[in-house]
Specification:
globular, single chain
Length: 67
C-alpha cells in the first residue's frame, strides 16, 4: 500500500499483512496497526518475494464505515 506523503507526493510502498486489513465499501483499511507503527515498516521491494498463484483465495474481513 502507499503510505506517507501529502496529497500523493512523497509516498512510499509498504507491505501490510492482509489479515491486518478489512474491506470498507470499495476501500481496504488497515485496522491492526497505528499510523506510527506503519511509519516503521520498511519500504517494499519486490525482490525476494513469491507471486501468489492465481487460484489462491484471500479472505478479508468486512466492516461498515464508522462515519
Amino acid at each position: 500500500m502507499s503510505f506517507g506523503g501529502f496529497l500523493g507526493i512523497d509516498t512510499r510502498q509498504i507491505a501490510v499483512p492482509v489479515d491486518a486489513m478489512v474491506l470498507v465499501g470499495q476501500d481496504m483499511e488497515v485496522v491492526a496497526f497505528t499510523p506510527k507503527q506503519l511509519a516503521g515498516f520498511p519500504t517494499f521491494t519486490a525482490s525476494g518475494t513469491t507471486p501468489v498463484p492465481q487460484d489462491t483465495i484471500i479472505r478479508v474481513g468486512l466492516a461498515k464505515p464508522s462515519h
